[in-house]
Amino acid sequence: MSFDQNPWGGFDDPFTDPDWDYLDQVPAEPEVRLNPQQQRAVDHDEGPALVVAGAGSGKTKTLVARVVELLRHRALPTEILCVTFTRKAAKEMSHRISEQAPGSSKHLTISTFHSLCLSMARDTPHLVGREEGFTVWDDKTSSRELRRIVRESGSKKKEVTVGQLVSILSDSKQKFFREGCEQGWGSVEAVRDCLAEYEALKKAANALDFDDLLYLVSRGLDRFPDTARAYQEKWVWVMVDEYQDTNPVQEHILSVVTAHHRNLMVVGDEDQAIYGFRGAEVDHILTFTERYPDAVVIELGQNYRSSDSVVGAAARLISHNELRRPKRIWTESEKGWDVEYPCFRDSFHEADYIARTIKASIEAGYAPEEHAVLVRMRRQLHCLQLALSQQEVAYDTVGSVDFWQRSDVKLILSWLKVTLNVFDLASASEVFSRWPRIGAATVARWRKSAGNNDKGALASMTFLHGHPGCGIETMRGKSITKFREVHAELQDRVRQAHPVRDLVTWLYASTGIDAEIATAKDSNVRKEAEEAQARIELRHSFIAMCPDDEPHNGHDGISSFLDSAINDRGVDEKGNAVVLSTIHGSKGLEWDHVWVVGMVEGIIPSCVFREDPSRKEIEEERRLAYVAVTRSRKRLVLSRYPVMAKNGENLFVKPSRYLVETAEKMPEPDPPLHPAPSQKVITIAKGQSRDRNLPKWRSRLCRARDLPKIGVITIE
Ligand SMILES: Nc1ncnc2c1ncn2[C@@H]1O[C@H](COP(=O)(O)OP(=O)(O)O)[C@@H](O)[C@H]1O
Ligand SMILES: [Mg+2]
Fold first, then answer.
1. Distance CA 419, CA 47 (A)
2. For an engineered disulfide with 275, which of 163, 224, 280, 706 has Cβ 3.0 to 4.6 Å away?
3. Using one digit for the tens of pLDDT, what is the confidence trace for 548-577?
4. How far is the CA of 363 from the centre of ligand 1 (A)?
5. How many Å lie between the centroid of ligand 2 and the Cα of residue 503?
6. DSSP 340
7. Cβ < 5 A residues, ion ligand 2
8. Which of 105-114, 658-667, 671-680 shows the lowest per-residue confidence on average (mean pLDDT)?
């Protein structure tokens, strides 16, 4: 290539900058042959494009191929922006791209909407109305502050709950109907006052919450056209995966960022839109061509992921939805194993059977990580976790415990936050209220003055020394003095540019967590000792993930570390283990063996217990079932049971309508995997037991007939 053909214009010279070395290594041919439609998407020139496709038709693969193609012929990595829906998907995409274009991924922007907005806000904080070095509050911190505001608002207490506030805030920000909602709040004065106070508090604390990140960036892009223009010129090529799940705020950000070049390629499948509850609107994909009339539309139909049996089941299922473009989903794969429909006595038997089957499957030579069990609701996970542990099968639960929310970790993050941003009242309260001898009353007293202190929240602590019980000679007074010393020393260490790992280790020791763990470890109470052990393991993994070298030291190190914690909201997976996940968490992933458990009315669809669920809700739940089914490459098991515990009652439940819809003909489980439930169940009318002690009466009845307790069912 001569310089005449150099597409890099005024940018770094790729021939002398070692960073661009990988360009020679981008292969001329992608490793798998794409089909003609996929190739069309890859070769798409400039202008908007919509790639619509069924599950497993290679949407993500096509996006990756397109990025590689752009890198080969016409784009600098810095000009490319890929937006995906989950952190896992972003990681996977950058991994796949760097396999084909080694070294490129550090220059590309591949991120979720949240991490994209966070980095925009860091680069241009005026966009979000904050100063440099702002902190981001997680959901727990936000709720805690809202709870305090509601509590302190006294008489308004009964009119508004924290739950209401959180959902009003989140809904209005995600759906972008802020003005509309603000007017709505007007009718409930208490709501409006509390929210106004919360917004003012965040502003004074130079902090944002999660919803703000997206909402304020999208607002800021409108308000600051020059900044918007800079982003428009920076990202020449914008691609979005899982477009069907964008909400109005995200959609707005995309439309502004791409307004100049208009090179927006969105990839999605309206049949997999499952985030309606977070404000996503399936309409965005359905109306893309109305908003971009010149968009090229490319349809991918062939499924490469799954066997013919699985593809058939998925196609039958989704054909029952009305709110969709009819499309043909087909595959050239072999028929493969039939879909299985076992029926168990209850969820415990189901879990037990699945754990044993997976164990056998692993012993037969299938890799553990090729097995996934998917649930509709998080609470279904417990008995599966128990059953797998009993069979000694290792499992990873996708996004289960939020690592960063664990108490010790959260406390240390708050210390770091308040060191970077001395005005962050909420984080300061968190660290202060966990300090020995400091109770809620002391914190409340201190907060009254702390907000107005122009030297920062913790600087106002001396104020407490004049208060009864807080004199410097009292125990509490000494404790406050000690707190200030630790805080001052931390600030010194940050100034001296200690690595983050040293700071975290030091905080473990200086804030008393280490001592607490050491005491609990030797406790005679088993539960306490076990908890201490878990905290030790947590400490280990937390410290291990902290950077301990240049350029990750001091202030900048902490700042980027905290940002990575915001973007990484899941646990690190062990790998090499069976995967447990909610269906929502399974989006975009695939496994050879997939179990979808509890396929009964009331779990999926979950809304049937409410009166009159709307067609829209039933369709969204059907899309969830469709996502679950299409995760499987080879083996698909849809299991159910006839009896389910709900609110202390055992209910008869019907097989999920979705399960029935996947089947050509509803097969009977053959042979029954567990004794047929009808032989083991006694039904009683509700009134029959009303004047008795129901649990005792049930136990007696079961004992008399040699039945397990679950064998007695109350019906209307
Ligand atoms: N042209 C192709 N030839 C062979 N396999 C393909 C092709 N396109 C996609 N695949 C495979 O199909 C599976 C699903 O691809 P993926 O991109 O994850 O689909 P989607 O994003 O549409 O759900 C992957 O295992 C991928 O490697
Ligand atoms: Mg995909």
1. 46
2. 280
3. 876 667 888 888 888 888 766 544 456 789
4. 28
5. 39
6. B
7. 59-60, 588
8. 671-680
